[in-house]
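Predict the holo structure. Ligand: fructose -6-phosphate.
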Amino acid sequence: MCGIVGYAGSAYAQDIILDGLKRLEYRGYDSAGMAVLDGDRLQVRKRAGKLARLVESLTGNSLPGSLGVGHTRWATHGEPNETNAHPHLSADGRIAVVHNGIVENASQLRHSLEAEGIVFRSGTDTEVLAHLIARHYAGNLPEAVARCMREAEGAMAICVVMQGQGGLMVGARRGSPLIVGLGDGEMFIASDVPTILSRTRRVIYLEEGDICTLRRDRCDILDAAGAPVERLVVEVTFDSAAAEKEGYPHFMLKEIHQQPSVVSHQILTYAGDRGGHISLPGLIPLYERMESLNRIVIVACGTAWHAGIVGKYLIERFARVPVEVEMASEFRYGDRVLDDRTLVLLITQSGETADTVEAMRMAKRSARCTLAIVNVEGSTIAREADAALFTHAGPEVGVASTKGYTSQLSALALFALDLAGKRNVLCEEELCVWLDRLRAIPDMMERCISRRDAVRNCARKPVYRDALHAMFIGRGFGYASALEGALKLKEISYIHVEGYAAGEMKHGPIALVTDALPVICIATRDAVHSKMLSNMQEIKARGGQIIGIVSDGDTAGAELCNDVFFVPECPAPFSPLLAAIPLQLFAYYVADALGRDVDQPRNLAKSVTVE
Ligand code: F6R
């Protein structure tokens, strides 16, 4: 987590850094700060809390200069106060460092620096880096940074400025993302591309171990072995305006509304508007190996892991390949049995989630075949996986994933159908039927969105809004929807919520049912519908407050509920795409009614780039 931006040019660095930090705030918002060099004068300003507090402190009291670094923090080491905010300075105050990642051997390094007489000001691991660079500095800043990176263990990206270097800024990455932006007489360093898109579209994605030295008109890069290297300059085509709210009160609500067009565009891109042909060009590098494939292991975190559960059901249903779904944080430290015929399928919106990145690298090290379903082009996973299937959801800014999730679901449906065709489990006519059913989904999603007022009115009822606990249950595809609905509500409303397989209720959770417990039941029409209705009867008999996600026209289901959100009837494998919408809207409206910070919930960050 944490966002980094650096500027070397001739414009007012403070404004460019603030603009970048505004775009980076999704990565962390515990505190923000910057260091700006004006000639040889290094000035630092930092504040605890949101970026607005830093902006306030600079109003009428700005930092002049055209070289500087900025940071927005998601606290790992040390509480989120002003002292622990970045940048951190060397003891003599000449070197300023901003950092994203974790220095895993920080406490050993700190003890050895303290033994040399260094007095630490903060409780962060980052301050260690500032002192280490100072310790190694012997007239060459990039060299001192390289030595610091060798000594510090863990995944990290840093950006460094120093007095007396004549307009020079140094960046380094290992395990955390860092890009360079090449402007006209100005250079940028940032954690991601949208940060600098308003100034330049020419970017370099730094590779593992790279150290870059930037002056306003020059960029030099050393690779992990210390050899000078030329990296590819990429012309970015996506639009930074896509990351604006466009009249919606929150990014989350905007992104919920974008889902029908995102899913429709993706289906059109990969399967056209008719017929039974799917074209997934990103998969071409895998085609030969896919023939012998006999097992898939899906690896992901959070919402993407929920998409993975839907993916398992889709792939097993359509392509008849056995699938396991693993949390990346478990998979990477486990000792899994993977053979040559196993495909490791990574699902990730950002392409930067630390555990998913490491899971991918682990799979690649043991020569396993890796495929990423990923949104952010140019991200670490998009670049390093053997093959990538892009979800094309556009920038997702709200911390709670919405369009990121549903675009993963439609990509998984297309992948499963494509695999079924390649393995001759489905013939072209059958594919055509299933694709037409999928093509009908975006209009149905639109209909779900048009029913938002019913969801909003329900969410504002005290019995739901003021609940201390809630439970989401479902079976089959509805089970995955229940897990995702529970996570959405929990993360933005702070209500304690559990997602459960409905069939498990009798094995413990039903003990929690009282008239103070809202139970959200995903009960759309499918093969296990009657079983869900039995679960709902049992909850109703115990006084639970039932909200049902029910198919249009299902009066038997609706009668069991205190409140109902109807969704159009669709084939079960695609039902999570519809159920997601009232579940997201419910979470959104409950959180909004409670006055929560919907787009930036406490303790979270959009991109989890630390373990
Ligand atoms: C929840 C949410 C997270 C992410 C998870 C993985 O709404 O957004 O649970 O799904 O952090 O992130 P990615 O998909 O970027 O790997």
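The chain has 20 helices and 24 strands. Residues 548 and 564 are 5 Å apart (CA to CA).
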